[in-house]
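Mods, move this if it's the wrong board.
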Amino acid sequence: MISNRSKKFLFVSAACLALATVSVVGVIFWQVDARSTASNFATSSSDKGNVDVESTHRTMTDLAAQNVSPETLPTPLSSQAVTRNSASANGVSVLGSGNLDGLPSEEVKSSGETVRNTDKLRTRPADLDHSTIAQFGPPNSKPSPDGANGAPAFSNEFESFFAQEPTSSIVSPTERPERATDNLYSSQIASLVAPTSQMPRGEHFPAAESNSLKRVADEPVSTLSVDVDTASYAYVRSEILNGRRPQRDTIRPEEMINYFNYAYPAPEDSDIPFTTSVSVVETPWNPDTRLVQIGLQGFTVPLEDLPPQNLVFLIDTSGSMSDENKLPLLRKAFRLLISSLREEDTVAIVTYAGQAGVLLEPTSISDSKSIYGAVNSLHAGGRTAGHAGLEAAYALADAMQENGGNARIILATDGDFNVGLSSVEALTRYVEVQRNKGIFLSVLGFGRGNYNDALMQTLAQNGNGTAAYIDSLSEARKVLVEQVAGSIMTIAQDVKMQVEFNPANVAEYRLIGYETRILDREDFNDDKVDAGDIGAGHTVTAIYEVTPVGSPAIKLDDLRYGQDKEVPELKATNAFADELAFVKLRYKLPGDVQSHLVSTPITTRSAGIAQGEAMFAAAVAGFSQLLQGSQHLENWTFKDAEELARANIGDDDFGYRSEFLSLLELAAFAEH
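Not the wrong board. Structure tokens:
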């Protein structure tokens, strides 16, 4: 039998064991709850439309009270070079350690609660971008009930904040000072974002075979429409950053090359909308061929000198837009665009999901309260009545145009048109009719899963607009703030390029990219044939790889029954003996129906483009072809492309070229 003393001992032991178990479980659940709270806070800060400032500060107070360490906080990340803002500007207070890069150390008060800066809860300056400030507004901003359609709108202090041009600088990966916590954040990223080699199903891209090698004796003339779109580069970047090697159809080399600005000479006045520069350099991947680069630089028009702009935001709010990288990112992007416009500009908003409707009637930028309220009220749900949305947007733009100024529709969508007039041919005809009325259409693509690039390219090309893919807030800033003048102001329409190669000096040639922009030879002189447009300040680059006569790199045999001319005799009698090619360009001034012609010879000594700029463009061209698996690059590698780009990085004010170096490093390890 067990004595009473033994019974008491066993009872006390069991009680102690139970108490210890409860304590351990409590600690585990406390840690899980703290991490969950931090995760929910980070998720909510990505963009939920209208922000409850009071509850946001309360959440942050709870985190601080729980002594959550910085390593537990999911970190907002950018796939671009880091965008910094002066976080103390405009009265914005940021929770953080008082010694972190000059961030404010004052207290933030909300609803009687005080959140003090503490090392227990830190916000890294590198993690702050314009979206963070755009979401929270100044600390004293509060929702007011008089926004569009009953949606909360922010106070005048919030409006004045957004009326100012965001002040920021881009810090490249090589320039940003290393922090002790960087490795912690990097390991967190690696564990949270696992790469996948599978591209989401349901995505559509225009299929086009790469341009083949041409024999000059058979086909001496190449004709194309210019292209200033950049969607392919942004999409390819998003794939590589997710550990995937992009599929072949997603890669358009001309859009990869034209993503970057090059230091081409600018026009001296606006009478000629663009300059033409040419250069000839040795091909990096084949010393027996040459790269002929043709660069156009559009006339730069300061934003304040533009005529009044009438913009209709046509926004897809269907159910497919609910993902964080779709409508939530879209709201941030449009807030950036609105902040870069002027008081004399007018905007309207049309949404479509199942049926289309006017969310915001034409409104002056001076009434930013109503505009931001409408943007913040956007939410996703329903099917995609794309054609109904287009009709409503064009009708509104037509009415706005009657008051003077330019009219443009900016369509923001994932490209999923599944209700109404949804065939590509029907949509194309409709957009062409509206284009002839002077209303242009630009397209911004968002998200993954059902991204329809083929449709968006077709709409933009036939709508005299541009197509961009917005994969991050940094890309939105590039397209809608840094390049806003070029995005909304056209300086040359229907720009066509025709290159005639001299058979005396060039045996073969190959155009790198522009597969979806090839025109027939007779289209060049036909002013009824539509072609690409150039916006204010835009650059356009076309690169040919050419094989000189007599080069060991010649791959195509002479024809047995051909009419080949004797090269020595041709050289002896030809007045253009030193010319490799002759470039002709046709363009129309906005609103004109008759084109203008400019021409430029290309000689073996042409060097109108700085060597470093030409070689950086060559690195991008080579990178594009490597991703495509081109057979023309012999044994050239991603490492070779990286070394070439790094040696010729040149001026990199916004960090885009430094980012490209990182992509080159990552691409070599991306999964096929």
